[in-house]
Design goal:
single chain, nine-stranded antiparallel beta sheet, 1 helix, about 10% helix, about 40% strand, globular
Length: about 290
């Protein structure tokens, strides 16, 4: 099921909280002679010093729904965030508004060759007002009725980050949307499924490491973000993946689903999506005027 909306800009104030560290971190290959090995950015289990953590308070997030039991509760129309230095001075280094351009909600995703679902998957495309870039977002939710009680997700992948032999520049970050969100541990350009050892660099893939596990009371990923230098996006047959690495004795298994990917050249469908978005924006404006009448 797919929904597309265009949201107008709005301003939301941050509540007074201590500064928290983090910003979008570039993901690149390591310097020679190890350029075949992915250079990971490692997070910290402390949001005051985590280089990958963006600060966004609940008052800075506008949701599609306020009902916590609704799938639309996990769809974010706008998110205001602050980027803060990790040098201990907590200096604000930037701020922006992520405005939703597109999203896909895929309920009851499964491991390959399996039938029982493990959770729900969300795929987002945002526009960042800070630098007018496209930001792709991923989020998982596990533990709903009928879903596997012992599934675990160690890795979440985004694909399609190389086009015609040229890699897009990408930077990773994450933010918390509820108090139960699990952080991003590590981000790097690799398709590796191993929890140990050096991971080979893969320009087309970014791997987010986390540890979603119902047995450990971790049913939600944070909102994992990937900023790109792409001007456009499209729907790819292989856009998002996930993997259970067998850390708790489960089988090593994963799967790949369709998802949004960056592209340097707009496809005909892009113009159709833009026209649909503008039409919906006009309809929303009309409804708002009618409500005020």
């Amino acid at each position: 099921m797919k929904h597309r909306i265009q949201i107008t800009a709005a301003t939301f104030a941050f509540v007074a909280l201590p500064a928290m560290a983090g910003d979008f971190q570039p993901l690149v290959a390591a310097d020679p002679p190890f350029s075949h090995i992915a250079q990971n950015v490692v997070g910290v289990n402390d949001v005051f010093f985590d280089p990958l953590f963006l600060r966004a308070t609940p008052t800075a997030i506008t949701r599609m729904s306020t009902d916590v039991n609704s799938p639309d509760y996990h769809v974010y129309e706008q998110i205001n965030y602050l980027a803060v230095s990790t040098d201990g001075n907590f200096t604000t280094t930037g701020s922006g508004t992520l405005t939703l351009l597109d999203y896909r909600y895929t309920p009851n995703v499964v491991f390959e060759n399996a039938t029982q679902p493990i959770g729900d998957m969300y795929d987002f495309v945002f526009r960042d007002s800070r630098d007018d870039t496209l930001v792709f977002g991923s989020r998982f939710r596990m533990g709903l009725a009928g879903q596997q009680p012992n599934a675990e997700l160690n890795f979440i992948y985004r694909y399609g980050l190389e086009e015609n032999g040229t890699a897009f520049d990408v930077s990773a970050a994450w933010l918390s949307t509820t108090t139960r969100d699990l952080r991003m541990y590590i981000a790097g350009r690799t398709a590796s499924t191993s929890l140990t050892g050096a991971a080979l660099y893969d320009a087309d893939t970014v791997r987010f490491q986390s540890d979603l596990n119902l047995a450990e009371a971790n049913p939600f990923s944070g909102l994992f973000l990937l900023k790109t230098d792409a001007e456009y996006y499209t729907l790819g047959s292989a856009g998002i993946g996930f993997y259970q690495a067998g850390e708790e004795g489960q089988p090593r298994v994963g799967n790949v689903y369709a998802g949004f990917i960056p592209t340097a050249v707009p496809e005909p469908s892009t113009y159709a999506m833009l026209a649909a978005g503008l039409g919906l924006l006009g309809a929303v404006a009309v409804r708002r005027r009618n409500r005020k009448a």
